[in-house]
Structure formats: C-alpha cells, structure tokens
What we know:
alpha/beta, 10 helices, 12 strands
Amino acid sequence: MVAAKIEKIAQDIKTMxxxxxxxxxxxxxxxxxxxxxxxxxxxxxxxxxEMKRASKILLETRPTAVSLPNAVRYVLLGLKQTHGADIWTxxxxxISRADGFIKNxxxxxxxIGEIGANRISNGDVILTHCNSECALSIIKTAFxxxxxxxxxxxxxxxxxxxxxxxxxxxxEGIPTTMIIDSAVRHFIRDVDKVIxxxxxxxxxxxxxxxIGTSSIALAAHEARVLFFVAAETYxxxxxxxxxxxxxxxxxxxxxxxxxxxxxxxxxxxxAFDVTPPEYVDLIVTERGIIPxxxxxxxxxxxxxxxxxERIQQTGDKLRPLI
Length: 322
C-alpha cells in the first residue's frame, strides 16, 4: 500500500501532473513522510532500506530539477542523524524533516515575493515565462502593495504552463496579456522587467529553466530590459561545483505532435534550456538578492564545501572527503 502511494506521487511528478520545481520538491518530501509514517518495518535496518527504495523511485522521475534530489537529501538526513537509534526515533526524525522542508519551502516563496517586490516600480510592465511560484509571488506581492503593474505571460509551449500563470494573475485582478512564445522579441521593448523562475542554478550562475527562457534572456539583453530570476536556495545545484553538467530532460514527442500523422518525422522536445549568467541581472532568493556569479558562494555556504576538497553526497549536504 505504501509503495503504491509513493509510485503514484512519482508518476504524477513524471507525467507533470505535479509540475514546478518547488511543488515537485514538496511532493517528494511529502512522499517520504508517507513512507516513514506508514512503514511496517520491524527493524531500523528494514526502515532504512524502505526509505532508500522510496527515494530511488522519486529520484528517477525528473532529471533536471535539482530541487527534487536536494529535498530528498534534506529529509533523509534524518536517517543519518538517528543512526543507531530505535525505529520510532528514526521515523519521527524523517517525518519532522519532511514537515520542516515543506514549511521552509512555502515560507521561502513568500519571502522571495516580499524581497523581489521591492525591485518592482509603479507602472512596470513585467514579462514572465512558464509557471513559477516564486516569479508570481513577486508580481502578486507588488500588486498587493498597490503598484500599478501589467503582465505579459508567454504560452510556454508545448505544455502551456503560461495558461496556469495567466489564470493565477487574473484571479488576483492583475491586468494580464498572453503572447505566443515566438513573439517575445516583438514585445520586449514594451516590457520593463522580465521575471522567471529556475529549476536549477549552477555554480557559475547559469540558470536552467523552462525551454525558451534563454531566448527571452537574449532578447531582454539586446533591448536592455532587466532580467530577474526568482529561486529558493535549494534550487542551487551542488554538483556543478565539481564540474558536473546539469542533465537537460527531453520529453515525449507526443507533447508536441501526433507522430502517427507524420510517419518518419523526428521530434526533439527538450523541457529546459540554459541561460548564461551574463544575461541575468540578479537572482532573488529567500536569503536576499544576489548577482548570478554569487551562486558559487551560496552553494559553498549551504553545502559546506571548500575548494580543493573531494566531495561525497551525504544527507542534504556535500561533505568533504579528507
């Protein structure tokens, strides 16, 4: 029964019924909480094995959004911290860390909204892409502060996440216009600021986000329009410190076209692209606003890594190998 629940959450993540890096991370934490709470393990060793199996199922769903493995690492640190304890203590530790991650994640979105809204001026026209909780939090907070703003949102093909953003913005009463993805350069000079989210941020400040983000950043750079990224610090990718490249997920061609109607046609459907740091003006995190090149320092601080050290993953941190 527990395995079925974990598989259901994993399938929802994989098929994008659960979408957005923050929501994916919280879903993973929630799945691990369910696995711990409903475990029938008789010994600590059995419990540890069950939790590791559950984490493996979750980790195999989406390869690009680092929020997922970072959430799993955070929650499973409860196993490491209670090593040698009885099974009930281990369960409580995992459940507590899962609850803590979910609470901190939601608070981070709110905090990012408050910090980022300070950079929005009255009368701004804002362009957003895809359906980022953090980007929308900034826009909504600025509007609630009484700022007279207007928003352009892209369709965000092929899965149309822009429609979700448009619905949320209209619900708040924010004037919103939807444009097709390929019209960004046409409208960019009508825009004051671009605000997008992130699925992963590399140590050099490069931003991995919904496909099309890099093209928007290029258009904004050409037009000298400010380009903001809004992201929780658990979206920073620790393994990029040691040269690992972020894997870009390619999804099923059926999201783009019915191949039965086009026999022999090849379709490429990458879900994400990489925006170079030189096209990013600032990154808004729950810890404050940083320039993209400060991503290295953020990762180094959060994951406790020093230059010259070899690293291994343990729990939610990268620990030095001495």
